[in-house]
Amino acid sequence: MIIKWVMITLLSVIVMLSFINFYQNVIQYEPVRTPNEKNEPSNMKKKKPLMPEKGWIEDILSHNIFSPARSYKDDPGPVTEVEIVQAPLKQPELILKGVILNQYNVYIAYIEKDGQKAIGVRSGDKIGDIEVMNISNQSVMLKWNAETITLTLKRVESLNKKKARRR
Fold first, then answer.
1. What's the sign of the alpha-carbon dihedral 18, 24, 28, 32?
2. Domains of the chain, residue spans
């Protein structure tokens, strides 16, 4: 029982000292006042602000980097037109991974583009520069640079025949 009273007393003394410290440092705080000229020590004389010499001011103003008069002028000579030849764009590698019919009776196709993760798309969606035109249960029609691409889930017949011969 005595230990409890000692602990409560110590705790209340610590709280009281903390409150006194808070009162002195925060509540009675007065910001530093500027010294009056009479109270000012003799070694604290007012200093003039540093200014560059007069010669430097004109030099700085004459070499202003934002001045419209300051520019690099070079005679470009006769202007010739250069014809830019663009290499034909490479068709992206597209693989149809699957087609599902969602709860709203809309087909969603999962297409893998250039070996990346398959993305679920609906009719009218775009994958980069490829637009999905139409999706059916076995195929997807895409439009890329005014070219129509058709992806299907059906196996190529020649592959099925080769598998049949091997058995």
1. negative
2. 94-154
- Rg of the chain, C-alpha, whole Å: 41
CATH number for 94-154 (one of 3.10.105.10, 2.60.40.3080, 2.60.40.1930, 2.30.30.830): it is 2.30.30.830
Sequence-distant (≥ 6) Cβ neighbours of residue 97 within 8 angstroms? 110, 111, 112, 118
Q: Maximum CA pair distance of the chain?
A: 114
pLDDT digits (tens, 9 = 90+) for 101-151: 999 999 999 999 988 999 999 999 999 889 999 999 899 999 998 899 999
* Whole-prediction pTM: 0.44
